Amino acid sequence: MESHIYYLCRALIERGHPVTVLTALSLPGLAPHEDVDGIDVWRAWMPARNTPGWAAFALGSIPRFRDLARRADVLHAQDIASVLPGMAARRVRRAPLVTTYHSSHFLKRADSPLWRPVLRRFVQAGDHNLAASTEIAKVAEAVAPGTHVEALTNGVETSVFRRVQPTLPPPAVGRRRLIVPRRLFPKNGVEHFVRALPLLAERLDVEAVLVGDGPERPRLEALAGELGVTDHVVFLGARPNAEMPGLLSSAELAVFPSLMEATSVAALESMACELPVAASNVGGLPEIVDAEVGALFRPGDPADLARVVAALLERPDLRTLGVEGRRRVVERWSNARLAQRHLEIYEELIQRHRVA
What we know:
6-stranded parallel beta sheet; alpha/beta
């Protein structure tokens, strides 16, 4: 979500529109207020990166959001925690409110009897609602019957994410390199990828680079040792977004073993770097991955994951799939397309409010 918002804001600024972002002071060392490449960024206190912490951020950010809203033409709440501050700010500045629902967190909460009426109120509050996948859009419309939610896939800055000089040294002769750009949280299914590695190693000489960190890392490192695949996997840890094109260009295939997923920006970034993609058949991933750019496997099934990945690596036209992936991202999911659609929505809402 962070990269989506950053590149969207950059594109809006390049088109002459000033943008202010209010986000969370979620990491040590961040400034409460700074200019980030032309984006006016404010940060509000957040005690922890969990549900109570995000709730505290939502409530605590209301005064700042209300103050910043006084000079805004459009208010845009990006995901659940920002909707309540947006609703409060609209009482000060009667500007239209756009909401976007990005992640699988929305899907999980939509099934909760406690959260469902809250989400209904949030969706109903938006003058225009967006969702990062068709699945999220349909669930949101079911939560708030009679309300329209537009599915709009997140975009990729294709001038940045493209095939570049690899930053990792080449693998040993005959060894095939995979990359798994996933944070190490249970919902991202990386455990099932690690369990698939022994099965893959029976067919091919492979190594996997895992880019991302999280609470699952110690357990996954131990699991790799138990399965005897430590020489087939590298835990690279978290890396800045700016390093990803070079890392992605160092591999032949990107793998997304998610158990829950909206439309994955990381998968689109991989495709933009001309990498074929193997992904779980879950959430929004089937909306972007098919046989012309990669393949899908059953979520939570290491054997099927190994079968699909091995079959892709054995294809003589593997590079062709990557080239097609790049073409699709440029045509359908570029950040330029995303920014243009946002501007169309904003202008329509502004005009509507002026008439009202």
